[in-house]
Write a structure and sequence with these properties.
The chain is α/β, with parallel strands linked by helices. Helices cover 31% and strands 34% of the residues. The protein has 2 domains: 121 residues, Rossmann fold (3-Layer(aba) Sandwich), CATH 3.40.50; 97 residues, LytTr DNA-binding domain (OB fold (Dihydrolipoamide Acetyltransferase, E2P), Beta Barrel), CATH 2.40.50. The strands form 4 sheets. Strands 2-1-3-4-5 form a 5-stranded parallel sheet. The protein has a 5-stranded antiparallel sheet with strand order 10-9-8-12-11. Strands 13-14-15 form a 3-stranded antiparallel sheet, with no helix packed on it. Strand 3, helix 3 and strand 4 form a beta-alpha-beta unit. It is elongated, with a radius of gyration of 19 Å. 27% of the residues are buried.
């Protein structure tokens, strides 16, 4: 069961979230809040798995509020303003719902939360995130969201499923040491890939979604052994 709460200054938005939650049997919306102070006190006192959070509200915006919380609650942002999307993902949101959103879109976000929570609960000692500093902040990137890591001189570019790109000052050697193997493997001196997301290999090229990754001679055998 996923215990959730929702914070939005609009009552109608909360009613929609409540109606959607009632259709998902493993999701328990324990409380809804229109007042930030009450929500913050509740979240800092009780364990909550998931927070549905509006961004543009009187007082603190949702991004500031989320950063202020003591516990590491999963968050799904729900807002009418799409220009907040990138910053929302920069604080490691599970998903970003643009109002008005359908039940199917809502369910997709919740299912993504469930997969991540199930993994963490089943394997509490298994690494689920990559922590790296970029853009003057510390990012905790879910490993399952990573599509590709590419080297650029003294920097690496981490490409995520939603096409977000995080550029950090690091060597490939340093970032590779932080990643679990064989979940992630070197495919080339300039590329690290998640093995389970390789769709196929054609000669010396690995396909991951729309990306074609060259396979270095010294790395190809290890990739094939772990597919």
């Amino acid at each position: 069961m996923i215990k959730a709460v929702a914070l939005d200054d609009e009552v109608l938005a909360l009613e929609i979230i409540q109606a959607y939650c009632d259709q998902i049997e493993y999701l328990d919306l324990a409380h809804t809040f229109t007042e930030q102070g009450k929500a913050i006190r509740y979240l800092n006192k009780f364990d909550v798995d998931l927070l549905f959070l509006d961004i543009r509200m009187p007082g603190l915006n949702g991004l500031e509020l989320y950063k202020s919380l003591k516990q590491q609650t999963k968050v799904i942002f729900a807002t009418a303003y799409d220009h907040y999307a990138l910053e929302g993902f920069n604080v490691n949101a599970i998903d970003y719902l643009l109002k008005p959103f359908s039940f199917q879109r809502f369910q997709t976000a919740v299912e993504k939360t469930k997969r991540q929570l199930d993994l963490e609960r089943a394997n509490p000692n298994v690494q689920t995130h990559l922590s790296i500093r970029a853009d003057y902040k510390l990012h905790h990137i879910p490993l399952e969201d990573i599509i590709l890591i590419e080297a650029f001189d003294d920097y690496v570019k981490i490409i995520l499923e939603d096409n977000t790109k995080i550029v950090a000052r690091s060597t490939m050697k340093d970032i590779y040491e932080k990643l679990p193997k064989p979940m992630f493997l070197r495919a080339h001196r300039s590329f690290i890939v998640p093995t389970k997301k390789i769709n196929g290999i054609y000669k010396d090229v690995a396909k991951i979604g729309e990306f074609a990754i060259p396979l270095g001679k010294s790395y190809k055998a290890n990739i094939l052994e772990n597919l």
